[in-house]
Specification:
With about 220 residues, the chain is α/β, with parallel strands linked by helices. About 40% of the residues lie in helices and about 20% in strands.
């Protein structure tokens, strides 16, 4: 669920302005899974744009304050949700920790970095949602430690049906600042793509596996 249409459009424009998102329907990027994607999203670029970074932190903070009551701590998903999550926690004056989807193989072999406690209520921060698999793996880690996951807030989602189903099956609320439809609409208005590209972009979002590198 997006925060609001106005916020979704604003964030989409930000991402396009700083080239955090690149759209190449005619020359798609290849994901590790072999999927050919007409879009590449690198929300880490937000960290290098102070005014946009501030706005994103403020919007995430507003979502948490408006949608969740009694939050004890903020948790970032490693690695994309760490920096933004820490800034959000600072603004809310709440403890912060981050979580890996997999336990590291050296040192203390921690999955959770920072101090979290049983029965604490947390909101998880993520930068990007594709299928939701790695994000929900972090939710699993927290729940295994009997930490209460109130939900997740992300900057952007592709709005894949698979992700919607995954979050629903895990019983995890998801709020995002922007989404794929808002991005494509803004990209068209800003002449990043043409009307002729929209059919390809829409088809891919509805069935991303229709475009595979080995097909």
């Amino acid at each position: 669920m997006i925060a609001s249409k106005d916020i979704a459009s604003k964030i989409a424009k930000y991402l396009l302005d700083i080239k955090a998102v690149k759209l190449q329907p005619s020359d798609p990027f290849t994901w590790a899974s072999g999927i050919l994607s007409p879009i590449y999203c690198d929300n880490r670029k937000i960290l290098s744009a102070p005014s946009i970074r501030t706005s994103v932190v403020e919007e995430i903070t507003a979502v948490i304050s408006g949608k969740f009551e009694g939050v004890d701590a903020i948790v970032g998903v490693a690695t994309g949700g760490i920096a933004i999550g820490a800034l959000v926690a600072d603004k809310l004056n709440l403890p912060f920790a981050y979580v890996r989807a997999k336990v590291k193989e050296h040192g203390m072999k921690n999955a959770i970095e920072g101090e979290l406690y049983e029965d604490q209520s947390v909101v998880v921060i993520e930068d990007l949602i594709s299928t939701g698999g790695s994000s929900l793996a972090v939710v699993d880690v927290l729940r295994e430690e009997e930490i209460v996951v109130m939900g997740m807030v992300a900057i952007f989602t592709y709005d894949f049906n698979e992700a919607t189903n995954n979050f629903k099956s895990q019983g995890c609320k998801l709020f995002t600042l922007s989404n794929y439809d808002s991005l494509i609409k803004e990209a068209l208005e800003m002449n990043y793509v043409s009307e002729g590209d929209i059919e390809v972009l829409t088809k891919w979002r509805n069935d991303p596996k229709s475009m595979m590198a080995n097909s």
